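Friendly challenge for the regulars: who can give me the structure tokens for this chain first? No prize, just bragging rights.
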Amino acid sequence: MQFSFEDYCLDVDRRELRRGAELIAIGPKVFDLLLYLVRNREQVVTRDDLLQAVWEGRIVSESTLTSHINAVRRAIGDTGKEQRLIRTVARKGIRFVGKIAEQALTASAVATDADIMDGKLAPNPALPDSPSIAVLPFRNLSGDVEQDYFADGIVEDVITALSRLRWLFVIGRNSSFTYKGKTVDEKQVGRELGVRYVVEGSVRQSENRIRITGQLIDAASGTHLWAERFEGTLEDIFELQDQIATSIVGAIASQLERAEIERARRKPTGSLSAYDNYLRAMPHLHRGTREAIEQALPLFYKAIQLDPEFAAAHAMAAWCHFWRKVNGWMANRAQETVEGVRLARLAVELGKDDAVALTRGGHALAHLAGDVEGAIALVDKALLLNPNLASAWFLGGFLRAERGDADAAIEFFARAMRFSPLDPEMFRMQAGVALSHLFAGRFDMASTWAEQSFRQLPSFLLAVAIIAASHALADRTEQARIAIKHLRVLDPTFRVSSLADWIPIRRPEHLARFETGLRMAGLPE
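First reply, four minutes later:
Bragging rights claimed.
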């Protein structure tokens, strides 16, 4: 069940609040309170109603109740003064007054168990043959929400360490993090992500000391298999993360030798300050809006300034420049292209053994320097280093589509979606599948996938262009013209002749097909 109001969507089944493509992080009680108000919007809700429904009759202070109501208002962009969506009724209670569109998820709205080549995804993936694991976001017990990024970084590094073990199937970081801030049932998580094991934990930071706890759970039975606590100073943070990865792997396969675990260790940078900036930038990069990229890029540059050999930071900065190019946001195209190429080349030079640096840096080089074959070689090397890296699979898919291997590309996107089925970058993967279908002449599939991508990020120029071209080539003239109108709002300078320099399409017949579709849709030459 989903409730939509203004540009927000409250998804009951996933326990998510979204504004457009952005996932808004809210705590479990805040979610429950908002859901109760929405479901009971026809009546005034009293304090006692909230205590009974949300806190199950437990006694809580007035300040606790007030702070949760204020948190709900902040999450949906309302205030006690404005009361646009939640109105206070004097001496009675509160009421949700926003206009609601209610949608039950039908069988057609929920993904079915079919192959991606048919354009669908499985809601409950089958367990892989190899051991499989998801590392959920660790709870931040520091009492400072500004430190959330720090706990997130610890989990991300544990995922990276585990992912380098070829025999272990590891769910991608972005899918794991869709459970952040939620009360989870490990059995449900196991079913939704298709894994045998789940890792949970917490981080408590006080001044210069830190305590990390972790536990391994059998997702099928809910049984706790392992638990440990690690303490140290911030200077030891990467060593603590290595200890956690070592203990988790040892609990799954006791015969694994320590030497193999040691090879899984990799510190992303020796500078904690540089890494802080990198971690702060990543959520902005995942959102993909123009404003988000403008926030991310200075943080990546700051990380580079603090640690000039931080390969992944160079790669992400280069990738920001690529994203600005592909969406028509570059202010000085020639200058930004040169800068993006410089950063990408440094990334792959500094990060010869860094899968993230090779993936993002290589992909950026394909689009900013036109080196598709070289980029494929770099991403393939990244997959040898980290065969579970979802971004390497989906960006490798884009590169294969652009080279002309549409069906091979779709297989890459399928693998990416399997490794990270709840990824906030799913809109990028969907656009890649759409592009592959367009090149293969499957116009209905192309428009279906592109429209899924568009719904998550309406400013994604590639998705809009594919919608326009695929509808036009399928003789759906009206839909094609609506899409072209939106494309010209996003980038008034875009022309049919822009396509050859926009993305590196290597097969002439694929370029001609895309150009023909845009021309038929009404885009000027």
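The chain has four domains: 2-103, 120-263, 270-382, 423-525. The chain has 22 helices and 13 strands. Your move, everyone else.
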